[in-house]
Amino acid sequence: MTAIDESGFVALTRAVSTRAGLALGAYKEKCVQRRIAVRMRACGVHTYGDYLALLEQTPAELDRLTDTLTINVTRFFRNAETWHAVRAIVLPALGREPGSGLRAWSAGCSSGEEPYSLAVLAAQWLEEREDWPALGRLQIDATDIDRASLQRAEQGWYRPETVADVPPELLTRHFTMDGDGFRVNETLRSRVRVRRVDLNLQPPLRQDYDLILCRNVLIYFDRATQERLCRVFDGALAPGGYLVLGKVETLFGEVRDRFTLVDARERIYRRCA
């Protein structure tokens, strides 16, 4: 990148960060450049300066760029091995006391497939134990920064291909056919609280989570931000709580000494009590 390109890129990302409320400086630069390039090609502009001028003239393009910068690909029970481990290791450890409930956070929830997958899994496990009080105290916070994704999460409606990995008996029990798709039943939707939270700018919604899922999110940030987010998760977990990362992610910084690696393959950590 030339000096002119560099100055144009800096000016553009500063403007986008201010207007869209995104802390782009924390993201890996090459990732941001690739996603901006997608919108530049779509608009037929060739320099960062020209694209910034276009953003100033066309407010709707800022929304399209924001959606491109925050795009995620997900589905229900993505990476089945991880969910099997959560079912076999995490839920039994957290639910030893009947009626204890579960406080969880899906950080970077996209359009809601991850938090609803957890809700389905937890409901199944608690129902098998006939632990009805705990089911009533199931609380899952689902946070992201993408407006369109959060709207889909609030609606809880998904196309057939998105729920293809949901076991048939759970699909029948927890979803209802709605048009050409499936909607999560109100019983489970009421257990998931959808909120817009930028991990780089805002604190967690609480500091006593039993479980935090943050999979395939850290990889988009630079090392300093990864370390800071690990500290955030450490502070947001109750003693003995679990953290689940993506399969190519790991804990960074001094917080590693406060966690035990429970499952190396599935990147499941437990905060020391």
Write the layout of secondary structure elements.
Elements: H1 3-20, H2 29-43, H3 48-57, H4 59-69, H5 80-94, E1 102-107, H6 113-128, H7 132-136, E2 138-144, H8 147-155, E3 157-158, H9 168-174, E4 175-178, E5 181-184, H10 186-189, E6 192-196, E7 209-214, H11 223-236, E8 237-245, E9 259-263, E10 268-271
Parallel strand pairs: 1-2, 1-7, 2-6, 7-8
Antiparallel strand pairs: 3-5, 4-5, 8-10, 9-10
Q: What can you see in these coordinates?
A:
With about 270 residues, the protein is of the alpha/beta class. It folds into two domains: about 5-70, Orthogonal Bundle (Chemotaxis Receptor Methyltransferase Cher, domain 1); about 80-270, Rossmann fold (3-Layer(aba) Sandwich). It is about 45% helix and about 20% strand. It has helices at about 5-20, 30-45, 50-55, 60-70, 80-95, 115-130, 130-135, 145-155, 170-175, 185-190, 225-235, and strands spanning about 100-105, 140-145, 155-160, 175-180, 180-185, 190-195, 210-215, 235-245, 260-265, 270. The protein has a seven-stranded mixed beta sheet. It has a three-stranded antiparallel beta sheet with strand order 3-5-4. Helix 1 (about 5-20) packs parallel to helix 3 (about 50-55) and helix 3 (about 50-55) crosses helix 4. It is globular, with a radius of gyration of 20 Å. The protein starts with a helix and ends with a strand. The mean pLDDT is about 90.
Query: In this structure, how is the largest beta sheet organized?
Result: 7 strands, mixed
Number of domains: 2
Strand and helix order: HHHHHEHHEHEHEEHEEHEEE
Number of helices: 11
What is the percent of helical residues? 40-55%
Number of strands: 10
| Mean pLDDT across all amino acids | 90
Query: Which CATH-level-2 architecture of the largest domain?
Result: 3-Layer(aba) Sandwich
What is Rg? Answer: 20 Å
